[in-house]
Amino acid sequence: MPDDWKAALGFSDRLTTIQAITSAYRHASPSASFAEAQSHATRYEGEAYNKAVSKLEYDSLCQQAIDESEAQYSAAPVIGSPKARSDEEDEFNVNDTIVIGAYKRCIHHFDGLMSTIYRSRSADGTLVALKVTTPHMMGPPHDSKREARLLRQAKNRYVIPLLETFDLVGGRFILVFPYMRYNFEELLRQDILTPSQIKSHLRDLFNGLAHVHQLGIIHRDVKPSNILLATPAGPAYISDFGISWMEGDSGSEPATQKINDVGTTCYRPPEVLFGSKDYNTSLDLWAAGCVVAEAVGVHHRQLFDSGDLGSDLALIRSIFTTLGTPNTGVWPESARLPDWGKFEFYKYPAKPWEEILQGASSQGRDLVSKLICYESSSRLTATQALDHPFLSLQ
Predict the structure, then answer these.
(1) Cα(371)–Cα(353) distance, integer angstroms
(2) pLDDT by residue (tens digit) across 187-237?
(3) Residue 181 burial (CB count, 10 A)
(4) Do residues 301 and 293 touch, judged by C-beta distance below 8 A?
(5) Residue 9, Cα to own-chain centre: how many angstroms?
(6) CA distance 166 to 190
(7) Which residue spans traverse the membrane (predicted)?
(8) Pick from 302, 305, 264, 314: which is nearest to 141 by CA?
(9) Gap between the Cα atoms of 216 and 245, Å rounded
(10) Local confidence band at 83 (pLDDT 50, 70, 90 cut-offs)
(11) Using CA atoms, how far apart are residues 57 and 366, in angstroms rounded to an integer?
């Protein structure tokens, strides 16, 4: 019977679709109330259900509603975040400050794994961030001296500017940057960006990667928190080159003996999880694909899960249950990876991207699918990603 597909489509399935369209609508138009978004979604889903003659057409019509919402509201103004505090206000409320070189009133901002960040003002009153490191206490791949060298060579509109460096007693090495109030991760968590702003920040990311990759630099730690912005509207800058690698740099490992303990948990690509030491810039493109997935997903969740402890095995399982367990046919380069074949994995089927990123725009999902590929040579380059329709300026 022609309506058999409707009988198979249960109430919970329709409700899930309505929730996906509701989330997409609110993502596209942050100022919309939940009731408005749900009413919009219910109407579109009902029209699709009544008009469609098959499950395939029903899914297509619902996806069309999601894509049209993004297109219609892509230019909506950004809304303010009630969580954001002004740095000027903080200065009046903080008494615990220290002196770092010529910077007399430095306020603790953040503790990193190998550094501590302070906020201060330069002689002309400009807010700056001071990254305090101790090079002789760092172990590979961390190297703040190399970070400074690479930042000077990579100077570009899309890379965080290095204003100055200086040494202090005790072997401390200080890098000074313009202070950026926001990072991409917190803006996604607060859900205050419009689709056009998200695309703009992602374009800045890929422009930055295209530039550093052309110089022979692999960033090795691409993630939303390393994309910094002065305002939610941008521009965005790639930051934190503390574990970056550059071809020909005296402080970088040999090209075929790169350290594979790089990247941050769920942004690490499968080749390094299985021991690759001759990886290339495609490592950054997998991580960038994870960033895009997080940005276009209606709930801005990380694409993969490495568990509470950041376990490699947990991450591998998450990748396999999402993309399907690969074999050498799907992933030819796995045959030469040092740690491939040491374990036998359950054969998980691949999920369709429509399920993985339910509620995301078609073009956004397509860009992710072209970056999150097992075979590293199949991933788009940063330059190719900039030509993708999702990042088009039109």
Answers:
(1) 12
(2) 999 988 888 899 999 999 999 999 999 999 999 999 999 999 999 999 999
(3) 16
(4) no
(5) 35
(6) 36
(7) none
(8) 264
(9) 8
(10) very low
(11) 19
Q: Which residues contact 68 (CB under 8 A, 6 or more apart)?
A: none
Secondary structure letter of residue 131 according to DSSP: E
| Cβ burial, residue 171 (10 Å; 0-12/13-18/19+) | exposed
Question: Does residue 221 have an active-site annotation?
Answer: yes
User: In the block, which residue shows the tokens 């380059």?
Assistant: 381
Please pick, among 143, 204, 221, 240, the residue that the annotation labels catalytic.
221
pTM: 0.82
- Three-class SS of residue 235? coil
DSSP-derived secondary structure letter, 282: H
Domains assigned to the chain? 4-73 (1.10.246), 87-178 (3.30.200.20), 182-391 (1.10.510.10)
240: left (phi over 0), alpha (psi -120 to 50) or beta: left
Question: What length is written for the chain?
Answer: 394
Enter the tokens of residue 282: 């495609």
Look up residue 39 and give its two tokens.
């009413």
CA distances from 82 to 79, 94, 153, 235 (A): 10, 20, 38, 21
The region that residue 191 occupies, defined by phi over 0 for left and psi between -120 and 50 for alpha, beta otherwise, is: left
**Cα 100–Cα 129–Cα 198 angle in degrees, nearest 5:** 170
Residues 239/281, Cβ–Cβ less than 8 Å:
no
CA distance 372 to 379: 7
Residue 339's CB: how many other CB atoms inside 10 A? 14
